Amino acid sequence: MSRTPTDTIDAKIASPPPSHAAPRHRWWILCVIGVAQLMVVLDSTIVNIALPSAQEDLGFSDGDRQWVVTAYALAFGSLLLLGGRIADLFGRKMTFLIGLVGFAGASAIGGAASSFEMLIAARALQGVFGALLAPAALSLLTTTFTDPKERGKAFGVYGAIAGAGGAIGLLLGGILTEYLDWRWTLYVNLAFAAIAFVGGMLLLQRSTRDKSATIDIPGALLVGGGLFCLVYGFSNAESHDWSSVQTWGFLVVGAVLLAAFTWWQTRSTHPLLPLRVLLDRNRGASFISVLISGAGMFGVFLFLTYYLQQSLGYTPVKTGLAFLPMTASLMLSATLASTVLIPRIGPKAIVPLGMGASAAGMVWLTALDLHSTYSTHILPPLIVAGLGLGLVIAPAMNLATDGVDAKDSGVASAAVNTMQQVGGSLGTALLNTLFASAVTDYLDGKNPADPAVQAQAGLEGYSTAYWWSAAFFAVGLVISVVLYRRGVPTHDPDAAPVVHM
Q: What fold does the segment set 23-205+272-491 form as a domain?
């Protein structure tokens, strides 16, 4: 990643001398980080399939059902940047381990929930500790793999997990719900957390804490409040009209708070998100690519799940299995992009290609109907979309943190996770609203009690959601072509991050 002379001088002054010796157990560290990241990512979808069973067991309404998902997203998305800075200031290993223990404890509380309120509180608590865990995990990866070739392989694996975790969550959620109980979609996190905790204790080394630095409290309040309002406003769009003050009011307040946060970061002595992290062109393009791909992915995971179960009558397990080829193609292209294509060609061709393939997969899905078969009509566009997402997610996550000083790696990692979370929330809210509008428009003047009419209305809604997902990726194609630099990213040896954990 190219850097300005001023950035290089500042890095030399502010950072300790870099260490070029890679950790001996770095590939085992990757396994530990991968398990932790998988737990965090799949938790955004693993409870989706379990919701009907949980609703029947705890007796909450259809209107309240969304909060099982939203409570997690609200806490997670609004606290990520603070979690990233905590990882930088208090040590990545300690933050990582505390995040694992807290996430496991919150999952146990949720699994044992005896009321709707207890379940929501547990999901919010999962989000709080996830906001510590996710940026610590990515910053550990960033500071562990400093050799460009090894870094590409590591981020290929990490990007594949980040992209495929949602599909794995659907499969695992279906298996646990169908053969055990919905509560096991939360209890299963204890196993993930235990494995990652033991591995982290044995393999990770403590990083040196900068005792002179402090947390930017005003910045934390501004960005936390701003992201909370944005996520809450987009979530409200599912149950309220876009013209409702509970939707646009929160969105406006969120935008104002984030604008104030940006201004404050130029004044703060110890900024929560130093603007130098965002201003590199490749990094900025990567943040936007992660945001857009997060929004567009929900066209696959959310609505295809509904289509398979409600329109075609798939069981939860069969629905999860249906996503496996997409997961495999995503992992293949993510690894290929990070290890072969980006080092040889650069991101300016690869990321737009992924955006285009993802858009093509979405358009292909609009042709599905009540008589579509899996092998002929569903599998091909799933594979195309998976290949496209892999070409976007792994390179974008790699380049979004590449070249960042070690002292900023946690907050840069948090910014990537924040973009993905906000993008997912935006996509969920917008696509759900468009889906509902399309269904309502189709039913206008028809008999809604007729099952055939209802089924066709659902198809109209799904098709609308896929078209809009394709539009997200098309916008991403244009932006990534314009912003990414030509050629292979360069690496400044003087800016090599510290690798001792």
A: Growth Hormone; Chain: A; (1.20.1250)
